[in-house]
């Protein structure tokens, strides 16, 4: 099972937390006993909503189960709109 993370270049702490959460889930076999969680990380600029949209479409094409981020309100609104459409 793959989860996507959209992070801005300065979001190092958020990316580390995301990777850590994936690792902790995989180490605790009671959470997802028959699955392994994978992290697909994409870096985007906080001002580039077009690139953010392209990255979201890529993540959806490869079948991610969830998308976390981005933090910027400018790009987050575009990501949210695409995800809402795909629900």
TrEMBL record:
- Give the UniProt keywords, A-Z: Membrane, Transmembrane, Transmembrane helix
Q: Does the keyword ATP-binding apply?
A: no
Q: Where in the cell is it found?
A: Membrane
Looking at the UniProt entry, the stretches that span the membrane are none
Report what the protein is called. Receptor ligand binding region domain-containing protein
* InterPro entries, sorted: ANF_lig-bd_rcpt, Peripla_BP_I
Q: What is the superkingdom listed in this entry's lineage?
A: Eukaryota
Receptor ligand binding region domain ranges (all copies): 14-86
* Record lineage: Eukaryota, Metazoa, Ecdysozoa, Arthropoda, Hexapoda
Keyword Transmembrane helix on entry = yes
């Amino acid at each position: 099972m793959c989860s996507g993370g959209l992070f801005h270049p300065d979001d190092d702490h958020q990316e580390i937390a995301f990777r850590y959460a994936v690792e902790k889930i995989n180490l605790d076999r009671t959470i997802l006993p028959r699955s392994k969680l994978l992290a697909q990380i994409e870096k985007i600029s906080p001002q580039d909503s077009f690139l953010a949209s392209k990255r979201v479409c890529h993540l959806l094409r490869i079948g991610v189960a969830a998308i976390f981020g981005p933090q910027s309100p400018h790009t987050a609104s575009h990501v949210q709109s695409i995800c809402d459409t795909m629900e």
